[in-house]
């Protein structure tokens, strides 16, 4: 590890926003020693028994961690460890390990390490990011078991000093959940991605985190000053005095702005001329609910259920019901819009037979999977309908492109209700049913859909991709992705106008809803309900309170007449700067 005082900058992937400044702790955990010495024939039975005892101990520890995470951070995050237990107790892995001990006289740690290496290779070769990220769960299990087999202890990161930045090649889920938010100011990982469990936990803990920095942890010494810029995805090792001051000043401005917004968080989201705007929250896990309420959310506009489906097995009705009902209860009397499973088939290849697809974005995904696997879908529908007895649960359908799909869903909803009646289980008879507007065909036929849905939710991320034929995740064409493109704006207005004509509520839940620059435009296009990340609510509310609805409509008309998204963006910056003079300063 280097001890140079040279300032270094590492680029990575920002997975949890914020700026963290502190002293480095380079976490270089030791790998367990795996003996290659063979076990004597007469000791094979004892070796198998030793292996089983260690599995039992590891299982007890994972269950203990799970209970702690469930109580401190919510049931959804705790399900990470359900997946680990399922893998730990997988009878086929146990059998193959014991066969190696029995037939080849391998030590338990060697046999288990070789077996798990095959499993890790299988997951690591999968193209899908979500499934590749599950390798860290396998590594976590391996660490729990092999350290015990080798006679060592499983080290924890729960006794670090205050104002510490943790740098490591990677952190296992069981290590990540033990980071103490009051002491740890940021996390830097050489490996990992936005879909890793470490990233999900970092967001839940609200720890500024950058991953994918390659060898950053090897270029730092304990005690070095480190700046984690979770907004830009950069890590500064040993910044000079001027650089440190600049980041501390930026962090102070950020904290001051948060305090200013905190003082005004309970003010209503009402324009200068009296139009009230509903601000709801997009959430992934239960722990975000309190943040949403603290920031003034009037409910959850979209709860994503994909997290439940990315483990090693499909979630049962009871498991889903437990999560959904807890969420709904925690938000009474506010509504909770729960989106049904919105995954591509490639993300479910570990539990379903999925043929390879050249273009998953246009293939078997979202509602198409649900309609082709009705029992899978009805399991989720039954859980959602039951959760509706605990508060106002609304069901949101993704990737709808035709009325036939919507009508087939309604048939399955009625079948799910019949099954619940037959089982004697209480459920909500009249859960509202809405659809995501993310395929242009729905926007173009919004009047027809309005006759058969209770509400629309504009998913501008995918609507923009489909309208402009661009995959924003592909670097060569990502520059073409532009939610301010006039064609996208016209689709949004088309849906808003249709909703007003038919008295069908329309909200927007895409990233655009959380962009303060877009707020004036969206209100002018006719939207009066925005669903966004909890942390973005106060700043968007600030924009709403500074504008006149009539002025917003004028601005929207001007933008609709423009030729390019760049013109729209520049015009919005000029307009917002006029009635919010400090806006530019806040966003520099």
Can you describe what's shown?
With 588 residues, the chain is an alpha/beta fold. Among the domains are: 8-29 and 156-257, 3-Layer(bba) Sandwich (Glucose Oxidase, domain 1), CATH 3.50.30.10; 41-149, PtsI, HPr-binding domain (Enzyme I, Chain A, domain 2, Orthogonal Bundle); 438-454 and 463-588, Phosphoenolpyruvate-binding domains (TIM Barrel, Alpha-Beta Barrel), CATH 3.20.20. The chain contains 23 helices and 16 strands. It has helices at 44-73, 75-88, 91-104, 108-124, 129-132, 135-149, 173-176, 197-205, 241-263, 287-294, 317-331, 367-372, 374-387, 403-423, 440-444, 446-450, 460-468, 486-502, 516-524, 537-546, 549-560, 565-579, 583-586, and strands at residues 8-11, 13-16, 19-27, 164-168, 184-189, 209-211, 225-229, 234-237, 278-283, 300-304, 336-339, 393-397, 433-437, 455-458, 506-508, 529-532. The strands form 2 sheets. An 8-stranded mixed sheet has the order 1-8-7-3-4-5-6-2. Helix 8 (197-205) links the parallel strand 5 and strand 6 (209-211). Helix 4 packs antiparallel against helix 6 (135-149). The chain is globular and about 85 Å long. 46% of the residues are buried. The mean pLDDT is 86.
Topology:
Layout: E1 8-11, E2 13-16, E3 19-27, H1 44-73, H2 75-88, H3 91-104, H4 108-124, H5 129-132, H6 135-149, E4 164-168, H7 173-176, E5 184-189, H8 197-205, E6 209-211, E7 225-229, E8 234-237, H9 241-263, E9 278-283, H10 287-294, E10 300-304, H11 317-331, E11 336-339, H12 367-372, H13 374-387, E12 393-397, H14 403-423, E13 433-437, H15 440-444, H16 446-450, E14 455-458, H17 460-468, H18 486-502, E15 506-508, H19 516-524, E16 529-532, H20 537-546, H21 549-560, H22 565-579, H23 583-586
Parallel strand pairs: 3-4, 4-5, 5-6, 9-10, 9-16, 10-11, 11-12, 12-13, 13-14, 14-15
Antiparallel strand pairs: 1-8, 2-6, 3-7, 7-8
Helix pairs in contact: 1-2, 1-6, 2-6, 3-4, 4-6, 11-13, 13-14, 19-21, 19-22
């Amino acid at each position: 590890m280097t001890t140079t005082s040279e300032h270094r900058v590492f680029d990575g992937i920002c997975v949890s926003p914020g700026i963290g400044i502190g002293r480095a702790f380079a976490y270089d955990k030791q790998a367990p020693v795996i003996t290659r010495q063979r076990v004597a024939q007469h000791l094979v039975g004892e070796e198998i028994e030793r292996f089983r005892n260690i599995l039992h101990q590891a299982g007890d520890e994972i269950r203990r961690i799970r209970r702690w995470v469930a109580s401190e951070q919510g049931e959804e995050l705790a399900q990470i460890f359900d997946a680990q237990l399922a893998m730990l107790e997988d009878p086929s892995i146990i059998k193959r390990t014991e066969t190696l001990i029995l037939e080849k006289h391998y030590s338990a740690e060697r046999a288990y390490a070789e077996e798990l290496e095959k499993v890790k290779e299988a997951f690591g070769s999968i193209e899908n990011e979500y499934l590749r990220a599950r390798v860290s769960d396998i590594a976590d299990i391996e660490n729990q078991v092999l350290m015990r087999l080798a006679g060592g202890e499983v080290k924890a990161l729960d006794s670090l000093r205050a104002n510490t930045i943790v740098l490591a090649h990677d952190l296992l889920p069981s290590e990540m959940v033990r980071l103490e938010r009051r002491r740890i100011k940021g996390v830097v990982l050489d490996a990992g991605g936005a879909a890793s469990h470490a990233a999900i936990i970092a967001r839940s803990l609200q720890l500024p985190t950058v991953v994918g920095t390659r060898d950053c942890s090897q270029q730092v010494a304990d005690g070095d000053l480190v700046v984690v810029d979770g907004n830009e995805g950069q890590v500064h090792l040993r910044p000079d005095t001027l650089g440190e001051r600049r980041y501390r000043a930026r962090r102070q401005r950020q904290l001051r702005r948060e305090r200013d917004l905190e003082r005004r968080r309970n003010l209503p989201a009402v324009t200068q001329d009296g139009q009230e705007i509903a601000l709801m929250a997009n959430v992934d896990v239960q722990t975000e609910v309190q943040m949403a309420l603290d920031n003034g959310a009037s409910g959850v506009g979209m709860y994503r259920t994909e997290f439940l489906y990315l483990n090693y097995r499909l979630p049962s009705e009871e498991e889903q019901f437990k999560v959904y009902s807890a969420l709904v209860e925690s938000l009474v009397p506010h509504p909770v819009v729960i989106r049904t499973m919105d995954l591509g088939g490639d993300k479910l290849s570990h539990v379903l037979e999925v043929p390879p697809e050249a273009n998953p974005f246009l293939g078997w995904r979202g509602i198409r999977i649900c309609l082709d696997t009705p029992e899978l879908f009805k399991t989720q529908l039954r859980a959602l309908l039951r959760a509706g007895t605990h508060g106002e649960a609304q069901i949101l359908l993704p990737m709808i492109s035709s009325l036939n799909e919507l009508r087939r869903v309604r048939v399955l909803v009625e079948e799910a209700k019949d099954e619940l009646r037959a089982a004697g289980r209480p459920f909500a008879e009249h859960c509202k049913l809405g659809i995501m507007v993310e395929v242009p065909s729905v926007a173009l036929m919004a009047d027809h859909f309005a006759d058969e849905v209770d509400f629309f939710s504009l998913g501008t991320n995918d609507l923009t991709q489909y309208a402009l034929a661009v995959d924003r995740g592909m670097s060569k064409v990502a520059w073409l992705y532009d939610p301010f493109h006039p064609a996208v704006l016209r689709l949004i207005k088309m849906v808003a106008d249709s909703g007003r004509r038919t008295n069908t509520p329309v909200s927007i839940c895409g990233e655009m809803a959380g962009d303060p620059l877009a707020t004036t435009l969206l209100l002018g296009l006719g939207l009066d309900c925005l669903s966004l990340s909890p942390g973005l609510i106060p700043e968007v509310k600030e924009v709403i309170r500074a504008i006149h609805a009539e002025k917003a409509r004028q601005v929207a008309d001007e933008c609709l007449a423009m030729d390019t998204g760049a013109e729209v963006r520049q015009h919005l910056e000029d307009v917002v700067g006029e009635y919010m003079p400090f806006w530019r300063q806040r966003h520099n």
